[in-house]
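Support request, please re-run this one:
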Amino acid sequence: MLNTCRRRSRDLSIILGLFLAGCAALPSTALRQPENLPEIHRQHMQDLAKIRQFNLNGRIGVQANGKGFSGTAQWQHERGANQIPKDDIALFSPLGSQFATIKTAPEGVTLVTADRKTYTARDAESLTYEVLGWRLPVTGLADWILGHPTSGLAELTHWDALGRITRLKQNGWEIEYPQYIEIDGFQLPNKINLRNHELSLKLVIKEWSVSVQAASSNQADSDNINQNHNGQDNKR
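Re-run finished. Output below.
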């Protein structure tokens, strides 16, 4: 009788071990891989990808390498049919005086300081570092500011129940989205925090205006949505 119990116990242990080994061998569901994204998140990303132009006004704060800037920012961004972006960014001091303007175009980037000195370079990051002392990631920021990853692989992506990204790690940057607002059907960030090993940047967007891609070739190239929004009126 004792031998029978021991045999049954041994057999049960073997069966349990095989079961656990089988469970361990099952592939995990990689929710952050593109082919496994939840449909609501995928749809939200597709909606954001329709945006061809945006204008925004907001508050900005930058800390980097012992230097800093705080004030307001105005940004006009356009992505044409050839996918080449154009940007016009104006930074203002807390008192309203112009601190710098940054313009990007296919031929390069131009930065004009408050004393009207003009600097040019091939990319915005190196130019802002040379002149202002901190790198402004304009290329990636044009996507991140919409709550959308920029081109390339994202190391980490978290999203909420509405499919909106709440945390993103990409290209050495960590981006957090504490708050969103709704602009004519689009869920857009109202607050954005970015940081990497040398810079911390915070944006509070007070006004959004977006232009979306036309639904068909029979329509105009884009349908303008001139919806300015005070971020304190409709928090999500």
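The CA atoms of residues 17 and 197 lie 46 Å apart. The mean pLDDT is 80.
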